[in-house]
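Please fill in the sequence for the structure shown.

STRUCTURE ENCODING:
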């Protein structure tokens, strides 16, 4: 079968949050954009569900928030967990400077279906499902397009710019031979489903007990459950058998009761091999990577979707005009990395240090007892609001260019931010002291 040849201004590889949002934003700005998604739908159980206030603010600025909130979802105004028998709240979103002062929990396939539906309203948007990018078209050191495998055979999509949004296993960055900086990660996550009742607590940060962390994300009548384990220990867990696995779940979260027996087969469980890494350089002539393709994130804090969306907004803001005018330079591509690398580094630093705390949890296989340091930290005045600001809004929030923003900071608000920053700094110092305690064997988290 002869090779098809298509032409577009921008070819986006990957139909995840970064890819679909970027396609929508570029089409909205009048750029001809083709998005390639290798699957025939968006249904992936291992994809994240947490839509943070920063992403909801982008929806507001785009004028689609009201429609978005009609899609079935749950709303949380706080995030906490249970350490042993001690329930705690780590973040409260009710005072955030956003229109939505909550975290929306929505299966990612619903989120992507919604965005894709909005994007299709623009004639310059072309979403090609079951189109798998298999290689880049490199002509004289400049990327000129993508080779893709489609249901109808091979296709070449010629483009002024290719943007890789194809996730942590990015074929784009592999084909481009980008250098990747890896950070050791001590955890993996086992994802599975378990039914939910209206009486179940909503503990987004997990249940910590018996040397494990169990995350339960509410999805209507069931939980998307994630059991945090030592990296590489899944084979050992399988060797111990499903009965032992079910008993582990029941001990961590006794309220699940006999529902743990719904996990009857290892095929119901998916292993997420957690990574934290980032490209040293996100671009080369004719090519840019963003989202997980540029910086794979841990599921800790549930920020992956939201960082990807922020990347897409910044990319559209910086490149849309140049794409329309056919004058995308490597300096412009570099400006995307310059804009987005700092918030990526901050969140990855926080995740790496959170992983160190998880290692401490693994060392205590017995009943967990919440340390006094945790009880003090979560009761520092305003610290929960500061943490919500850092996680829910981010270090460098992006806004839709030309959209109406929140009013500029007045003196009183600046004073509050300064006080909040001081509280956060104090919390960092406390965590550092706790980390020293980890190394001395106190078993704190």
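FILLED IN BY: designer on duty
SEQUENCE:
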């Amino acid at each position: 079968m002869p090779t098809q040849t298509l032409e577009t201004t921008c070819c986006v590889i990957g139909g995840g949050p970064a890819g679909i949002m970027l396609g929508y934003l570029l089409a909205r700005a009048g750029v001809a954009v083709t998005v390639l998604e290798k699957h025939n739908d968006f249904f992936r159980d291992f994809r994240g569900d947490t839509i943070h206030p920063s992403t909801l603010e982008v929806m507001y600025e785009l004028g689609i928030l009201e429609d978005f909130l009609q899609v079935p979802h749950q709303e949380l105004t706080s995030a906490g967990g249970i350490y042993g028998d001690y329930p705690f709240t780590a973040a409260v979103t009710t005072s955030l400077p956003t229109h939505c002062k909550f975290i929306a929990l929505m299966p990612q396939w619903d989120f992507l279906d919604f965005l894709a539906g909005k994007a299709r309203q623009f004639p310059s948007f072309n979403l090609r499902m079951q189109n798998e990018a298999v290689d880049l078209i490199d002509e004289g050191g400049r990327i000129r397009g993508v080779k893709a495998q489609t249901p109808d055979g091979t296709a070449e999509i010629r483009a002024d710019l290719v943007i890789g949004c194809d996730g942590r296993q990015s074929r784009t960055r592999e084909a481009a031979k980008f250098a990747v900086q890896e950070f050791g990660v001590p955890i993996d996550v086992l994802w599975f489903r378990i039914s939910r009742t209206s009486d179940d607590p909503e503990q987004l940060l997990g249940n910590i007990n018996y040397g494990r962390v169990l995350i339960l994300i509410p999805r209507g009548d069931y939980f998307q459950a994630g059991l945090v384990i030592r990296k590489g220990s899944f084979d050992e867990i399988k060797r111990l058998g499903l009965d032992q696995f079910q008993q582990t779940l029941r001990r961590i979260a006794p309220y699940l009761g006999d529902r743990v027996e719904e996990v009857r087969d290892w095929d119901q469980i998916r292993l997420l091999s957690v990574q934290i890494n980032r490209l040293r350089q996100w671009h080369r002539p004719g090519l840019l990577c963003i989202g997980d393709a540029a910086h794979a994130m841990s599921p800790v804090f549930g920020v992956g979707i939201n960082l990807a969306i922020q990347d897409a907004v910044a990319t559209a803001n910086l490149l849309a005009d140049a794409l329309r005018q056919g004058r995308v330079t490597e300096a412009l591509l570099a400006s995307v990395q310059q804009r987005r690398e700092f918030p990526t580094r901050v969140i990855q630093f926080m995740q790496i240090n959170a992983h160190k705390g998880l290692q401490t949890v693994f060392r205590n296989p017995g009943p967990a007892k919440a340390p006094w340091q945790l009880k003090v930290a979560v009761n520092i005045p305003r610290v929960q609001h500061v943490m919500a600001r850092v996680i829910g809004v981010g270090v460098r929030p992006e806004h839709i260019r030309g959209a109406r923003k929140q009013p500029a900071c007045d003196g009183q608000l600046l004073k509050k931010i300064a006080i909040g920053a001081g509280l956060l700094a104090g919390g960092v110092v406390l965590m550092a002291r706790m980390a020293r305690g980890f190394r001395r064997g106190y078993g704190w988290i």
